[in-house]
Hints:
- With 221 residues, this protein is of the alpha/beta class.
- It folds into two domains: 84 residues, Methionine synthase domain (Methyltransferase, Methionine Synthase (B12-binding Domains), Chain A, domain 1); 128 residues, Rossmann fold (3-Layer(aba) Sandwich).
- 61% of the residues lie in helices and 10% in strands.
- The protein has a five-stranded parallel β-sheet, sandwiched between helices.
- Strand 4, helix 8 and strand 5 form a beta-alpha-beta unit.
- One of its GO terms (cellular component) is cytosol.
- GO terms for molecular function: cobalamin binding; metal ion binding; methionine synthase activity.
Amino acid sequence: MTPQEVLQGLYDETLVGNAPRVLELTNLGIEMDMGPETLLFDALIPSLEEVGARFERGDFFVPEMLIAGRAMSGALDVLRPLLAETGAETVGTFLMGTVKGDVHDIGKNLVNIMLEGAGFHVIDLGVQVPPEKFIDAINEHHPDIVGMSAFLTTTMPMFKANINALEKAGMRDQVIVMVGGAPVTQEYADAVGADAYAPDASATVKKAKALIAERRASVAV
């Protein structure tokens, strides 16, 4: 196979979620001395962006996104240490967790995969994350964005509890707070004082990139 065929194969197989073939082509690309950035930025990320575009158009649904995300996740497991060796720059650090009282993580995990694929360093705190755990993790990792997920209407008030805890700890201005989950709306995000809301994984990536660029531009001024 030529390098171009490897890239095209990676793009096509990620799109349809063929995880074994994606892994095989990733390893083949590395054996052929194709740089990890080339595999990521010229094939995997464009493919996942196409998955997101198809989801937005209504051509793909959550199962297709999950399958493609899992296929890419396998490639990322191989590429992550190689990218670290090359010192590839990350877009930013995204701290993620499902709020206290909520154990749902499918949506959160899909967002994580999409963010990683887009070049973010993702720290996943898991589910049932209380305010103090968010605070400890912010102190430890200094993320650009904190993402909070809730699937149940009964756990949505934890967004406000978490944001109040950040304010009390004097950290509210240090991070961008994004919220999301099935029952969450833009109006609710505004009401609890979040910086942003995204309805799905694809929108989360776009919004996160825009918010970080905005913040860096305002710091540079």
